[in-house]
Specification:
Peptide Methionine Sulfoxide Reductase, Chain A; Met_Sox_Rdtase_MsrA_sf; alpha+beta; peptide-methionine (S)-S-oxide reductase activity; signal; EC 1.8.4.11; Peptide methionine sulfoxide reductase MsrA
């Protein structure tokens, strides 16, 4: 966690000097504004929110799926207003790095998103994903309806019964309350920063493995 944070801060200090100013601004409407900037119409789209470690990786998985229109990196599961990356990444809040997925429910189901979520991180490690350690990297599946909660719990039970993992799944299943979009330089970070040391050593191997496993779910641009 510290290495990734330090690398990010060093590489973005001069390029993103406005970030420190953004920490004191209200980003409660930032999700809609970000989507407008991306020219994405959210009409008819459903939303799903997951936390599974570094949001650079999680965002890259979901944005490759057919039926997913957009994915935003951000923070969820906490209580303080206007969380910043510096605060969250150093464990100064109760937030988890998360992604919000905007998708077409007639093209990809919530069940399939939940399946992908559990398949793309280790849900048995408490407050840790690989080199990223701390509560900010905990595994959380946020539900918006009782039906979504049942879907998540069913997937967990199926995985446990099938003994997919040697250890018990420790993913939190929590009601969705609020999602705060991360700072602009985190959005689509995997694509924009292919030479970032963390992306090269940690994210790329995971994403390539995901692409190989879920070829039938990928958008044409990601099918190799």
């Amino acid at each position: 966690m510290i290495n990734r944070t330090l690398l990010l801060l060093l590489s973005t200090f001069f390029l993103f000097t406005s970030c420190s100013e953004a920490t004191n601004t209200d980003r409660s409407q930032a999700a809609g504004e970000e989507l407008q900037t991306m020219n994405i119409d959210t009409a008819g789209l459903a939303k799903a929110t997951f936390a599974g470690g570094c949001f650079w990786c999680t965002e890259a998985y979901f944005e490759r799926l057919n039926g997913v229109e957009a994915v935003l990196s951000g923070y969820s599961g906490g209580t303080q207003p206007n969380p910043t990356y510096e605060e969250v990444s150093y464990g100064r809040t109760d937030y988890a790095e998360a992604v919000q997925v905007y998708y077409h429910p007639d093209q990809i189901s919530y069940e399939k998103l939940v399946e992908v979520f559990f398949a793309t991180h280790d849900p048995t490690t408490l407050n840790r994903q690989g080199p990223d350690v701390g509560e900010q990297y905990r595994s959380v599946a946020f539900y918006r309806t009782p039906e979504e909660k049942k879907i998540i719990e069913k997937e967990i039970q199926q995985l446990q019964n099938a003994k997919i993992y040697a250890n018990k799944i420790v993913t939190y299943v929590e009601p969705f309350k609020k999602f705060w979009p991360a700072e602009a330089y985190h959005q689509d970070y995997y694509r924009i920063n292919p030479n970032d040391p963390y992306v090269v050593s940690v994210a790329q191997p995971k994403v390539k493995k995901f692409e190989a496993r879920y070829k039938d779910l990928l958008k044409p641009a990601y099918v190799k």
